[in-house]
Specification:
By secondary structure, the chain is an alpha+beta fold. It is built from 6 helices and 13 strands.
């Protein structure tokens, strides 16, 4: 992945973008920089969840839409599960926002979809053949529930996506360095991902500490198990908890924090592919 700096409409906004996703998909993972919110929400807090001023959030969201090149981005109500919602033609923001879903799928050109995060894993999916795309919110519960695999499978069933055409970008989230967990989480990982330990996704404690879990690796395993090629998966490898100057982190800041966003939209017609 690479970080780019957008300078548009009188403001600058850093975005982390995947080098695997083609240019016709406008997409990105935000940092905490580029907005107007005051501490502790400084500065690009795009979520109105934890007490920021509504006018600041509204301005930050306006900047996010400018970065996406659209006048609206569809978000669902995230509940740490595996359900997704597909944005139909003519859908309103309110209709999609009412859906209890941790993934939002867009099948039509110009349909921008997104998720909010503040340690959970944001995942962006691009079907380079059909132009379909999706944004996935994968906290540890959603990861255990299989939200990424379920979203990919729905794209296959309802949009005709082929796994050979899929590109997956796993964005900044709490990393294995900081995601210290109890035995109940490790047990859930072992059940949901039998190959997790062999892949190094369960990190042994140091000096009597607790186990750590690598959510990046678990979501990579989920994508691979659904048929996505390993070289079609891009991992930012950036820990939100470790980087207070760049990212919000719910765990690090004990809930007094802002929210990041991930978005994707097919901005142009994709190139022609042979059937």
């Amino acid at each position: 992945m690479r970080e780019v700096l957008l300078s548009e409409a009188g403001f600058e906004m850093p975005l982390i973008r995947s080098t695997l996703i083609p240019d016709e998909f406008r997409h990105g993972f935000t940092t905490r920089l580029g907005g107007v919110s005051a501490p502790p929400f400084d500065s690009l807090n795009v979520g109105g969840k934890w007490g920021d001023r509504p006018d600041h959030v509204a301005e930050n969201q306006r900047r996010l839409r400018i970065a996406a090149g659209v006048d609206r981005i569809f978000f669902g109500t995230q509940v740490h599960g595996r359900e997704s919602t597909l944005v139909p033609a003519g859908a309103t923001l309110e209709e999609i926002a009412a859906a209890r879903a941790d993934a939002v799928i867009g099948g039509a050109p110009g349909t921008a979809v997104g998720v909010y995060v503040a340690d959970c894993v944001p995942v962006l999916i691009a079907d380079v053949r059909s132009g379909a795309c999706a944004a996935v919110h994968a906290g540890w519960r959603g990861t255990m529930a299989g939200v990424l695999s379920a979203t990919l499978q729905r794209m296959v069933t309802e949009l005709g996506t082929r796994m050979s055409d899929v590109r997956v970008a796993i964005g900044p989230s709490i990393g294995p360095c900081c995601f210290e967990v109890g035995p109940e989480v490790v047990s859930a990982v072992d059940t949901a991902f039998p190959a997790a330990r062999a892949a190094g996704a369960v990190v042994e404690p140091v000096a009597g500490g607790r186990l750590h879990v690598d959510l990046w690796t678990l979501n990579r395993l989920a994508a691979e198990s659904t048929g996505v090629a390993t070289d079609a998966i891009d991992v930012a490898g950036a820990c939100t908890s470790c980087n207070p100057s760049r990212f919000f982190s719910y765990r690090r800041d004990r809930g007094m924090t802002g929210q990041l966003a991930a978005f994707i939209v097919r901005a142009r017609e994709p190139p022609s592919f042979a059937a």
